[in-house]
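Section: Multi-chain targets

For targets with more than one molecule, the full set of components is provided together so that the structure can be written out for the assembly as a whole rather than chain by chain. Components appear in the order listed by the source. The example entry contains two components.
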Amino acid sequence: MRVTARQLFVLLLFLGLFAMTLRPVADPDFWWHLRTGQWIAETHAIPHADPFSFTNQGKTWLAHEWLSELLIYSLYRTGGFGLLILAFATIITATFLLVYQHSAERPYIAGFALLLGALASAPTWGARPQMITHLFFALYLYFLDRYANTRKAKTLMPIPILMLLWVNLHAAYALGDGLVGVYLAGDLFELVKAKLTTKVATTDRSDDFNRSGEAMTKVATTNRSNDFSRSAERATKIATTKSFREVLMLCGILALCVLAALANPNGIHLLTYPFETLSSQAMQQNIQEWFSPDFHQLEWQPLAWLILALIGAGLLGRKSLSPTKILLTLIFGYLALHSMRHVPLFAIAAVPVLAEQIGSAVQIRQQASPRALTPSRCPSGSRAVRPAGRVLKWVNLLLVACAVLVAGLRFVSVVQEQAATEKEKFPAAAVDWIIQHHPAGNLFNTYGWGGYLIWRLYPGYQVYIDGRADVYGDAFITDYLRLEAGEPGWDTSLARDDVRIVLLEPASLLVRELRLSPDWGVVFSDEQSILFIHK
Amino acid sequence: MKRAPSLVNFLLPRLQDILFILTFYAVILLGSNLFRDGDPGRHITIGKYILQTHTIPTRDLFSYTMAGQPLTPHEWLAQVIYGAGYLALGLNGVVFIAALLIAGTVTLVYREILRRTTSPLFSFGFAFLAASAMMIHWLARPHLFTFLYVALWTPRLSRLSRGESMPLWHFPVIMLLWANTHGGFIAGFVIWGAYLGGFLWSYFTQTRKPDLKILRNFLFAGGASFLATLVNPVGWRLWATSAGYVMNRYLVDLTSEYRSADFHQPGAWPFLILLTLALFALSRAWKKLPIAEGLLLAGWAFLGIYSARNIPLFAIVATPILADCCLPIFQRIPSLQRIDEQISVLEQHLRGFLWPSAVILLVGALLLSGHNLDAQKQGYRFNSIEFPVEAANWLEQNPQEGNMFDYFPWGGYLIYRFWPAQRIFIDGQLDFYGEEFTKKYEQILSADKGWEDLVTQYNIEWVLIPPNAPLAIELRNNPSWANLYQDRTAVIFRLR
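Its structure, encoded as tokens over all components, is:
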């Protein structure tokens, strides 16, 4: 099979991207997802009350990611961390493949824009249900964009069906409704604008014609004027009816999506859940991924470059974008600057826009250049190139083989790193001590380790707090933060909850108080953690 | 024959005057917010020192840790102005000066937008947006002078780039003042570089080449301005000091205003609106921007995203460009267009600065007579929640001997309250103290391993720090240290 330079570029791009997405499992929340998936697989039921913490035991828990958790556990049980890492790398790569597919100016300009978007999103990648939301987000954009280009109703059919899955995979399913809403708003805007513009144009032309027609016989003039008005009116009516039908189509899809969202174990309660999360002050102020990106961190600078590239391409390209694309860029741009967590959504929405604008800028430069020798543009992907010669064919194969090898080696290295990553990020050795010595009493833990402790210690021990911030609520989280900072009254709070084991990071201010207290003794400490037992 | 303007032409305010008055009064009303940073205390103290001794200090006077070390006085002129205001009216005088600077800057931004768009109402709205974006960094510090200079500098460069007739001596004069007022003078050269780059791009890429006379003017303006920067108490070393701080990653990360903006805070939302307008206007492709202005828009947007401190400069430089791009939106609203035309016709006949002058004089007189014009009617002051105001009051009654260890954000305030009677350990001039010393400070404050050795090394006898600092927790349980004072903001410990 002959591989063209373009095809080779695309292959290498996605192999490289795939290698980039391979990373060890280090997300603090992964572990309670894993335990929940195990719970569901073993009990054949979805939990509705919290079983994992002693502070919140029995209270309502909306297990909104149950299907993702089951999937995570199934993958883990089948192939361990290796299969999990591979699966999520595939999901992330597939997401960007979809973004690439519906970008213009393939392959090179779209490839550059895609790389920038991928770099901007990279800090959020990991084995977590959020990656599934990114995939569904990209799928929704793909289908909605196809509808916008073809206006064929059948392209919208997969959307409510996807919602049936999405609502059970991750609580950010509401983004899907939001996307349909944006396209609906864009179409409405175009409809109103078209109606206003055509009305003015029809009136003007009809008036002009009437004035010139006065020089001719009155009857002929009147007849022709009437004919013109009628055909203009008919054209306007057809265009308006068609656009109105399209708007109604989107309204119908939106309604179906909302109905589809009810098909989940928590029913109507899940409809308000995404908005409750967004309005939680404790989460917005204390959970790092809800903070604005810090552009002093190298990992977030690609986002700044992406925004800079959009402004730059807009300046040079001068292509007028559709209202829908403008809305997508602005809304998700705002969300990305508001919270790091939303950066991938912005990248997915902005990459096609960026590719379009860069393409426009390149065209303008080519038209302006008096010495432009490039042939006339062919539709992307159909440009005729000379087939590679025999040697070139082997060179191409070698390049692809090297890329596959690099990705393979990266995968092996990441899987081997997993154990070391776990020891580095989580209190693995301290937990080993607890399992070995089995001290009595309730356990107070650092928030970020709650998920890991649920995986390692449940049901033997329940946690004080973990990453399910929605379960604990703002008031509890605020109290936890005061306690963890060693504020006065910490000892009373621990005694009230019958806490006799405390597992913290060494830099925690509560550690200083516990060290100085005669009631507590250190039984284990290493670089990651320090474990206190009540004497 | 032109009719001489009548008295009525001087009596009615223009939109520009209303904007000035509103901004001026907003700063007067929110005056205490100008002191939510400790550095104004240091600037006021240095300003008083210069006015009283007629010398500009080139060595450290305020700390015992770096006593006598060379110090670049790169903000001496601003400090003199603030010091003079303080000597005349106390903190009222400092707020008065800051209000003039900010209102003057916003008015200049309005005038530039008006020049580009010829629409007073539209210009008012955009200037208001720029003022809102600038609020994020309204502090009684020398950088307010940089805001004013940028607002003077950029339109002049813009006119120069279009080949308009322009007195070139303005540039070195502005730069002479700027380089002696604030280290942000470097921004002037960044903007100059963008315009020069735009000219060169046009010259080498366009068939209809711009006039080389413009290049000559640019080179003269830039060269003369560079020479003007050397006219300062330390000569060329000024450049090393101004550029050196931002190159130090550790120190920059420690300084909150250099960090990226927190878009959860309402203070950053006007910047977000400006960015949104930029993306929106460019995506509609209503106007082709000259390369230089595109560079300025994109460049300052990037710098504003990177560091919150740059947001006001983005607002000053980019808002006029942005307003020009967004004018087509405004032109599609007939009702607003009609009002705007009426205002335009009226303003053509209006003259003078009666209203701003009257407001300035009135406010000045009220402040001089001791009236409290702030929103809380309590007088301008450093906030007792952010600064150890009550602890400082206690120390005035119970002065302590020996070397003090202090929390660095409070350093400027402690200089303001106690110098020369008490010297500090460290203050906000982290570029002066350097990375190595700052790390030692962090080691003591965090009570990290070896902190007691540093206490001995610097002969520290008492400390003034926040009550939840790790050092405070350590000292509270250490029998060698006595807790002399505590309130919600500060705690004082002394070595027994």
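The radius of gyration of chain A is 29 Å.
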